[in-house]
Amino acid sequence: MNPSIIPTVKTLINRIPSLNWCFLLFGALFFATSASAQLFETTLGIAATQEEAQDSKPINGGKYIVLANTQSFGPANMISLTRLNATGGQEMTVTLNDQNAPNVPYFGTAIELDINAASVHTGYFISGYRKNGNAHQIILIRTDLNGNMTWLKVLPPAISHDERSVSVERQSNGDVTVVGNARNTSNGVNSFVVARFSSAGAQIYSFRYNAGTSGSPGTGFEALEACNGFRANIPVVAVTGRTNNHTFLSVINAANGTELWRRVYNSGMQQDQGTDVVYKAANGAAEPAAFMIVGFAGAQHTSMWVVRADPATGISNSKIYTPGPGVSAIVFAATAVTLDATGTKAAIAGRFTTQPMPAGFTNAAFAMVLPFYGTELPDWTRYYEGSDPAGVGKESISRITSGGYLIGCSAKLSGAPASDIHAIRVNFNGETGSQGCETEKLTPAKTTVGTSQVTSFAKTAAAWTNYIVTRKVFTYKQESCSMGLTSGN
Known about the structure:
Blueprint (H helix, E strand, L loop, with lengths): L35 E10 L5 E9 L3 E8 L7 E7 L5 E8 L8 E10 L5 E12 L2 E10 L4 E7 L5 E10 L5 E9 L5 E8 L5 E8 L11 E10 L2 E10 L2 E8 L5 E8 L5 E9 L9 E8 L5 E7 L6 E7 L6 E11 L5 E10 L8 E9 L8 E5 L11 E4 L5 E7 L8 E7 L12 E3 L3 E4 L2 E4 L3 E4 L3 E3 L2 E5 L2 E4 L3 E4 L2
Antiparallel strand pairs: 1-28, 1-35, 1-36, 2-3, 3-4, 4-5, 5-34, 6-7, 7-8, 8-9, 9-33, 10-11, 11-12, 12-13, 13-32, 14-15, 15-16, 16-17, 17-31, 18-19, 19-20, 20-21, 21-30, 22-23, 23-24, 24-25, 25-29, 26-27, 27-28
């Protein structure tokens, strides 16, 4: 243990009883797994090249699916889909790209499960983007359970725009929404895209949302993540990201694409941004429904930034969090959020980096469970010494019916010069039970900060086209820490 990280006050730990669970998207269907959950921590990739973890989800049978980008199997980047068994062992790795144009890079950014009307898991929706000349195009792919493509939609970019997907969300009727960012390469102004499709790939709507007419657009609105939620009884898609060095949240009617409100949040620091958002339903009068935006504040990402926003108006309560007493952090940034096992708190993942010091340099993924209300201090916070976040890979966190969480992030295989895929299966308290990949506690401190204001908005319609990609089977090298079994989660 790094002596500089030893907490000076007691870490708050709450062992939470097991309840049924839903994905980040509100109202998703349940998956059952065994009452005994196998914990693991494992790294996958090709040591000589690079893999970048993007998203991960639990699936039927106590298994897991991991979405990544890989440079290991061709002349250009490919989308990688890896299925892990209940103990973290690699069952399947397939790639998706255009075999007729292998030099065209393809990138995945988010994955969601396709579940039919009989509640059967039938495939995956993958959002991402592909290179198109000097810019990128947003793509949405539907595959079967083995990664075979069913359909692929491409959004032709607006003139002089570079467009990349950031999120995919399944709706309660089986439709799917994809969210992306659109940057004008001539002036640097960002707008964002929200489109809805049926599970068969029929376009329902597609709009690009911009800054409106009041004032200068500055950098515009750069989308970084999204989630499903409700405004009163209206299903909505909430989009977060950054605008002019600060955070925004846009709430859009999920049925027709009408934007209901948009608000900008300012931590009072030099910069901040929202990197993910989650919706929590009301839990009695003391805990109204809310969105929680997570991200970072400070020019070097030194503080975790959390905004709790009213779904009706966006009026907020916001705070920054630091790693705690005696910790000199270069980075303490949240990058992903979902709901905890009770559905009343947030489960957050992110990156934690300390200053080099006599006890050593730390660069690791962390996770915590944070209440929306009450003390707003974490129930627990842990970082994972076996992880090594790097590059444009990103952390993900999903909760699991049998208890605990799946964390997707980065690490390096033995001797690898660049990042590989890292998956961590933890229990309710963020513990792995592994030997050789230790977990360490943090005791974050909070400070109430921030202001917000409404902003104008507008939108234009857009149409998508069809395309085809090819599936190929590969096998990653895999290294795992020794595994620990936890029963009765």
